Amino acid sequence: MMPDPSRDVRVELRRLVEAITQSLIETSGVELAEQLRREGKEPTKVAESLRSSMLTQFRKHQQSQLKQAKEAYENKSASLHTARNTLPGTPADWRALLDRILHQHAEVGDLVTIQFRDLTKLPDEEIASLLLRLKELGLSEDGEKQV
Predict the structure, then answer these.
(1) Number of domains the chain contains
(2) Has residue 75 been placed in a domain?
(3) Axis-axis angle for helices 124-136, 91-104 (nearest 10)
(4) How far apart are the two ends of the chain, measured CA to CA in Å?
(5) Per the domain annotation, does 101 fall within a domain?
(6) 143 in a domain, yes or no?
(7) Of 41, 63, 81, which marks where a domain is finished?
(8) Statement: residue 32 has pLDDT above 70
(9) Confidence at residue 85, expressed as pLDDT on a 0 to 100 scale
(10) Three-state secondary structure string covering 40-94
């Protein structure tokens, strides 16, 4: 039997969770405890198990987000390091190049100057990062915007 392509399982699952949630909201704690006891379960143990399960899932989700952020940071850091090695010459050359680009592209120069105020006090890493971002935008020192 082929699955129905018009069905969105995620939507159905979300609706089911919403229905269960609504049912739990509308049912008093006393009613829930009585129902659990009728099923032969101890309400405090069920509550603790649920709490533990939710905490475990929450921590897994947090760790997953942390891992993704760390991987993104490491990838960006590696690409900046690689790209930095493609910059010409020394940090002094980078500053001169940045100065030429900013003078040739006045609209960008104004924004960068507004953001950083005094470019002469920026660390070499920031200069390299700015040059790389300008390169990503297609700005070069020849006065033309590259496509």
Answers:
(1) 2
(2) yes
(3) 40
(4) 51
(5) yes
(6) no
(7) 81
(8) yes
(9) 67
(10) CCCHHHHHHHHHHHHHHHHHHHHHHHHHHHHHHHHHHHHHHHHHHCCCCCCHHHH
Other CB atoms within a 10 A radius of the CB of residue 99 amount to 15
Domain that holds residue 76: 27-81
Instruction: Tell me the C-alpha distance between 110 and 128, whole Å.
Output: 18
For 42-51, letters b (16+ CB in 10 Å) and e give: eeeeeeeeee
Residue 125's φ and ψ, nearest 5 degrees, are -60, -35
Residue type present at position 9:
V
The span from the CA of 77 to the CA of 61, in Å, is: 24
Buried b / exposed e across 16-25, counting CB within 10 Å, b at 16+?
Answer: eeeeeeeeee
In the DSSP assignment, the letter for residue 5 is T
**pLDDT tens across 105-122, in order?**
777 766 665 556 566 778
pTM over 0.70: no
